[in-house]
Structures are given as C-alpha cells and as structure tokens.
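SEQUENCE-TO-STRUCTURE ENTRY
===========================
What this section holds: a protein sequence and its matching fold, both as plain text.
Tokens: labelled as protein backbone structure tokens, with as many entries as the chain has residues.
Question of interest: how does this chain fold, as expressed in backbone structure tokens?
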Amino acid sequence: MATQILPASAETTDTFPINGTDFIEFYVGNAKQASVFYRTAFGFQLIGYRGPETGTRDRASYVLEQGKVRLVLTTAMRPDSPVAAHVHAHGDGVHDIALWVDDARDAFAKAVERGARPALEPTVQRDADGEVVIAGIHTYGETIHSLVERRGYRGPFLPGFVPAASPYAPAPVGLEYVDHCVGNVELGAMNRWVAFYEHVLGFRNLISFDDKTISTEYSALMSKVVSNGNGRIKFPLNEPAEGRKKSQIDEYLDFYGGPGVQHIAIATDDIIRTVTALRDRGVEFLRVPATYYDSVTDRVGRIDEDLAPLRDLGILVDRDDEGYLLQIFTKPIEDRPTLFFEIIQRKGAKSFGAGNFKALFEAIEREQALRGNL
C-alpha cells in the first residue's frame, strides 16, 4: 500500500457541523504547577479557574489560552476521584479533545444513533454570562470528545469558571491553533477506530501510511488520518507494526497503560521565531543528524526560509503537491515517554511530513535506546 492519498468526497458527509477544537483537557497530578509550566515554557496565558473556591469540591482546573488554542489542566482533590484514577493509570495525559458544535443535543443524538458510547448526556450549564450545552462521547482508550455548544455565551470559558489572571505572564510564542491531534491505539485497532470516525462522525480517511512508509531498521508503525469536511479537525491514528525491536507506539502503550493521545500539533505562522522562543525557555526538541540538511533542498526544492536557522533549531521540511511545511517535535514533556507536541507551519502543504518520517523515527529510537526501551 505504501502512502495512499484518498480522493476527496464530492460533498461534506459530516454527521453534524464541527467548527473547530474547543479545548483540550489534560488530567494531571498537579494542575497549579502544570499551569506554571505551560505559561513559562509555551507562553500560554491564564484566563480561567474552577475549584473549591468556586464551589467545585472534587477537582481544580486552570484554563490557559494562546491564539485559538485552549488548554484545561485538571487535578483531583481526593484520591477516589476519577481524575486521580486516570492520572494513576496513565500519568499526566489528555482526557478530552472537545469539539465546538452548533447544536450539542442534535450532535449527541446523531452520534449515539450511529453507535457512539455516551460519556455525558446533554447538560445545560448557566451563569450570568449565558448558557452552554455540553455532551460527550467515548472514543479510543479513556479519551472522550465533549460536544460544546456555546452560541450566545459571553464568558471567558464555561459556566462555573471564574476569570483568572496572574502577574506572572510570560509573552506568547506565536502558537495559533490546533492543527491535528494524534492517537495511538493497540495492534489491530486502527481500522476499527477509523471506521468509528467515518461512520459515527462522517469523517473521511484522508491519507494512509503502511509499515513500509513508516519504518526504520528496527521498528515500524501504521497510520491513517481522518478528517472532517471542513478540514479543521484532523486525527491521525497510529498502531504498532511488527519489527525487530519495540516501536515508539509499543513504548507509548506500555507507559501510558493503553490507547491515548500521543501528540498535539499546534500551528504557527513563524516557526523559526516560535521554536527559538521555546528553546530559550527550556523546551527540548528531537534532533535529526546534521546530514539531513545536506540534501533537504534537493528533496523539497526552493523554500522561503534560510537553511541556517532551520539547521540550528532542528526544524524539518517536507513538500507535497500544494506546497511545503516546516515541523519539529518536542521530546516527551513528562517523565513517562508518552505525550509530546509538534510545532508546524504550513506553506500550502496539506500533508503531514511523510518525507521526514524516517529521520524523525530514527531520532525517536535514539531516545528510546537511551531510556532502555528500544
């Protein structure tokens, strides 16, 4: 099969309209400390809070924002909380990729009718700034999709949260919006979850990579990308493939304790500025060999950027029929080798950097070897 780009459908087949990613909620061991990390390292701004002081007794949540990206960091207040159970099983990780919809009741009903397992029945939340309707459905592992309807709501985030700010507010680094979120699933489950997104949400399989495309001397994986009709939601789904040694997907599944979100790709319109700022704030990135840059322009053709800062920062380049992209991947942001981030700048390209896969996954394997997990 190798890389296969599938033809676009004649018309949008979405089960219901999705306007974009509303927020991404992490369950973490210490949300107060995590909020400082994301502000310090990634330049997010604190905009909201919910916890015991606001009448929520079982958890505390901090809302961070940069561009159109909203992160919610939630921690348990008691050991018998489902948040605590999630962190115990997985470490810090993504619990909810929330989708912004026009009508949460209608979206939930249609999703459940098509086979989705309910996570939250449609619920109206109100405060002085208006009302929000939220529902939720289960997807792979313990990941859910909240369905958020917020038309007419004037508050900073959701009812129950109060505005929050801090005198400690490092400058943003140029992160603009969520480009895509990648999920890792167990061997044999990828096609089942692709079918779930196709049937339940009306997504289409945008592109497929087999273990010949995504492989190194030691390991391999398979991946398919599903997308909604307007392209604002893109979910690559990975599963391990047989190889001589443990793949990065196997390592993730072992340490996360099952399927979950592997990485979040966030777009910028100036990747050199963004990555320079992130590096200067202590964010660590994967590095490819310097020889990668000896032939990169032969492979991708002319680009607008000077090659020197790309080489210095370790930024990768790839091209498709519609343009090119620049991308770089952080190392895991926690001690468990699970979640990481991708920073991406698209200069017309709609693809995901297939030309960089081999160099990237060899870099990941070098990190695996240092951890003793290859």
